[in-house]
Amino acid sequence: MNFTYNHLHFRSEDPDAAAKFYCDNFGAAITSERPLSTTKSIQLELNGKHLMTISGRAEGEDPVPGSNDPRYGLDHFGFEVDDMEEAAAHLRAHGAHFICEPWTMPSGSTVAFIEAPDHVSVEIIQRPKG
User: Fold this and answer.
1) Deepest in the core among 40, 51, 57, 127, taking most CB within 10 A?
2) For residue range 26-57, what is the model confidence (pLDDT) as tens digits?
3) Strands of 29-36's sheet, edge to edge?
């Protein structure tokens, strides 16, 4: 048996705005939009690989609001960068809200957290060089 990554699925109050956020901030690209029940599904890829699916509220659903508070289950997901200062400047230029400013952990990795649409927490990490 062999498992391979397929996707993350985010439900969003505004799927178009959420997709634009990931495209503008991380260089993701919209690969398709299609109907999904009574809403739509937007597929995003990053560097030629499927990243996530974003959909809206379907008829008859009443999704609970998101939160970027620490929680059980999926707490956050992360992107690795090779230059945290450049990445942070890029994110700030696009209006990203930092939940946690860049800081260096004892391991030497530098991390930061931003809030994506629908209160999704996204970690940005730069591993030590060498």
Assistant:
1) 51
2) 999 999 999 988 999 999 999 999 999 999 99
3) 8-11, 49-55, 39-46, 29-36
